[in-house]
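Note to self: user wants both folds in one dump. Writing first protein now.
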Amino acid sequence: MKKVKITLLALAAALLFSCTAQQNATVATSPQEQSASQGQNSIDRFADIEVLRYDVPGWNNLTLKEKEYVYYLSQAGYAGRDITWDQNYHNNLTIRRALEHIYLNYNGNKTTADWQNFEIYLKRIWFANGIHHHYSNDKMKPAFSRAYFDQLLKDTKTPLSPTVADVLFNDKDSKKVNLDLSKGLLEGSAVNFYGEGVTADEADRFYANMKSPNPQRPLSTGLNSKLVKEHGKLTEKVWKSGGMYGPAIDQIIFWLEKAKGVSENQKQADALALLIKYYKTGDLKTWDDYNVAWVDATEGNIDYINGFIEVYSDPLGHKGSYESVVQIKDFDMSKKMEVLSNQAQWFEDNSPLLPQHKKKNVVGISYKTVIVASESGDSSPSTPIGVNLPNADWIRAEHGSKSISLGNIIDSYDKAAGSGRLKEFVNDDEELRLAQQHGELASKLHTALHEVIGHASGQLNPGVGTPKETLKSYASTMEEGRADLVGLYFLYNPKLQELGLTDDWKAVGKAAYDNYIRNGLMMQLVRLEPGADIEESHMRNRQWVSAWVFEKGKKDNVIEKVVRNGKTYFNITDYGKLHDLFGQLLRETQRIKSEGDYNAAKNLVENYGVKVDQTLHKEVLARNAQYKEAPYRGFVNPYITPVKNSTGQVTDYVLKYPQTFAEQMLRYAKEYSFLPDHN
């Protein structure tokens, strides 16, 4: 998935570029059902994380049938939740269930530091869908001792093998996704997409030899399977009904069938029928057929994302993580932003790309601002703010794409954000004024340009393989950087004012540039441990973009590094020249993708996007330590609850909110655990 993730730090910078039908009691209305914001938006805070609620404005304006459609789609999403856990690490479900058993059954002293640290550890694992940090990919170790843990296991009669328990405390499987080539992309990654003994070279050869029936429309080979060795031979364990993850997929199918029966129109029903067929067969041609039908189903108030989509967690870029988002159209904001998709050809024609890399006919981009009703799998609790699908370049070229901005998620972040950290890192009062007055709009416009124009822009040269084949482990960060650069190039352009999207294009563009450079060169470093390299794809792309233009602009002092009272700042002295540098880098990044130039991608990312100035990092961490805001934020979902009358007929669906993060996680574990510990 082409996806924009966001954290509190990015919002502070204002710019960055995821109950059952059987209940039959009549539900009385309570404050928890009305609005997340009627209570505190924040529901929990632990470690480096804050958990929020989000509102679903307009819920009561939906018809009963529309609410039912959302309910069924949401249930389908939750049914696959544990797939994500198992994909992230093969011991995750075993560990989570053991920790949850302790949490529910421990009757000892819960006021000790050890127990509090146990609760924090469990919450961190819940938030990350596993034992590895959701953003850094590093294994999270407990702040309590092995002896204390063994006593918890004994006191609660919790079964857990010593070998698995050891993993929590030792250095084995320390990185979920490793992108350091020297450590081995698969050998150094704990993610559960490849079987024991499978090397990156073997996997690359396996998929290189898997020819698509139509080379002009290549299949997404490897997207929905685990590659393993059986009797010394490589084979795929396909994720489908009757295959790997079959029990959970059967539940997904059950709810999708119900959703198809109440869909808003025939095109929605046809797309759902193909998605169901795909889950039943695992056939990748059916997956492509579904995506074409889904892109074409643009009418109606309800839409969704469901499937094995995001490939960021696979160091080789083949395997899709399971995720689900169910959304309701925000008519007002969608209308305002629709102008971008209508002007897609103008942006392509006026981009700085080489002529042979420009699309002559940009087709079928639909852009909507939506209201999220539920998220699951890889999209929850940590969520994207923008999404552009499908991934396949040939589908995008022939049939178009859907771009969405998750409006209520962005609004929830905005409500929770503070300005203290921003004031610490801006260079002067003018930079602060620009951020405060224009940063929010700059962020929304960059998200829209990134998703609608960026990911739809450009084309591959004839005969060049897909980026996952040519650019390999650098494909994801190169694509996200390319889309960011498209947005950055056009953010400083009077066309935005001509289209009525702003009344001061220069001020918005300056705010966007300030925020991007400030975040890419400094503020995002607070997410790293001292001494660490950057490994997450989005963090890498923000640094290599920022560091490249900083270096190339040194001759003209386009961005000056200012050190004042022992504190570092980055000050843009010439926004026009910086705009030109973004254009030059965009042209080169598109050339790399279009030509499949692996060595150029490697040099760009490794030279500018991986290594961290450790002196600056230490300084940033020290300056950031005074602020209490959590670096990362995520969300609980509302419970979409059927209301039934005395005869058992559903008369409404209302929203309830959990009182605590733990409540929702335990409820999900109880109601949506369809998989065994090991799959």
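First done. Writing the second protein, which came from a different request thread.
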Amino acid sequence: MFQTFESHADPAHGKERVPLLRAELASRGVDGFLVPRADEHQGEYVAARSDRLKWLTGFTGSAGAAIVLSESAAIFVDGRYTLQVRDQTDAGIFSYESLVEMPPAKWIENNVKAGTRLGFDPWLHTVAETKALRKACEKAGGELVALDGNPIDAIWADQPGAPVGEVAIQPVGFAGELAKDKIVRIGKAVRDGGATHTVVTDPSSIAWLFNIRGADVEHTPLALAFAVVPAEGRPSLFIDPAKLGIEAKAYLTQLAELHAPAALEPALRTLAADGATFGLDPQLAAEWLRVTIEDAGGATSDLPDPARLPRACKNEAELNGSRAAHKRDGVAMARFLAWLDAQQPGTLDEITVASRLESARAKAGEDVQMPLRDISFDTISGSGPNGAIIHYRVTTKTNRKLATGELYLVDSGGQYQDGTTDITRTVAIGTPTEAMRWHYTLVLKGLIAVSTLRFPAGTRGQDVDPFARRALWQAGLDFAHGTGHGVGSFLAVHEGPQRIARTGTQALLPGMILSNEPGYYRPGEYGIRLENLIVVEDAAQIAGGEIAVHGFETLTLAPFDRRLIDVTLMEKAEIDWLDAYHARVASELSDQLEDDVKAWLAAATAPLSQ
């Protein structure tokens, strides 16, 4: 099993540990401290030693922050975690704030007293974020103070060590482009950006650039490292040598100068002293990098991570790999859903079902000699009211039965060497209510609206997002998360810069893979989310049209629960799309399924008119 179900949350953490932090801060002459859920790479996926927010507060979500002052503390989460944070943290210690409506900078303006010295770790905040925090502190009459060493590390007695997962080479047959050619491309982007060097801080970009994968964080094949890429010449890769076996070291030595992580600071200072100009991505690069370079006499300028867009726009080899991975995943989902449908309501629990799904993925991979390398995130396996917790993680403490008359939401994915998958289905356990069918159909209409959308070049994720919500909005409903995130190629299941959300400002480009996952959540009763992965297609002319427009290809192959669809709420074009999609699912999967599963799939994908 790639997933465990032990509870890592304990609200008592805050009561025990916040006083220790306050004492440490007082010894350093500061009145407060910012605790982001971030590491030196500013990524969503952090190693155990870097999950300081969880250690301090008990909150286990993938996004958030806390501010601890001498007499108060606040924790910030987005709409996915509004229920979870209250279950996992102590309301007597922390006030609850919205990461979107009341982000830390705004909270500081309203709550920090004049004269307050607010400490922060410059490794854990980006250049842009630090600028906003400093401005907010000054507006409140306080001071933002960079600390030398993280104070939580000083009080975390059993803090895990730095990860040393083994690095593996991603063959060009899956990557689609040689690393040496990518390095030339990125060097040109640095030169075109007016810089002599850039520091690549995102481990996903490093994995893409050098065609390597790692094992330093859960469920995502990343090797934590930094790279300095010059406009001309060989890059330098700063990575723990313990991660490199003989083959990986020999491979990387051909591409870059290899150094231990401790060599990064002197290397930056030497280059800076020689007059280098570093292009840094203000949204990704740590403030520590900017300060170190400028203190040593170098210059910095804003330069978006030059690997980010090329990584997001998958080439044909990566897209073919993703299609194959989704077909394999579809076989696993068909077997799983057929098995689930045959069980008696009330006989299964969330952990049993999640474990069965992981086993189905493993078997599907074995069938075609493409083993499941990992799940792409902890499976969200939520029955009844647990399904209404948007990022619910089942544990032995929260595990409950799938009872008759309830909905069951399962959001899961796999990591295969040829692709990363992510799929959500909501199914009825027993007979659904009319309210369930109504809400489910509204969510389905949103998914179909995005799936069938045609759009001109330059369309952004925020332009697409309302299409997923229209049917819900018409009914006075909505959901508190984005409609879609980018997905990597045997990389992070959450990948930027592409996203379908109110904040999605990146134009959608051919080859970008995104999720399409509208939802509806009724706290205390049930949650509904439906998710397919889609890829942006090349623009094409439409008969009679005047401009070429893009569309989406759907990658995911799995049926929707026909018992939950109210056909009277659907338009003919929506029914036609769903019938065609279901026909495709049956056509592509049936020849790989056992007879009983094939029969189940035939019924599950029958036209809605039947």
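Dump finished. Worth passing along: The longest strand covers residues 406-412.
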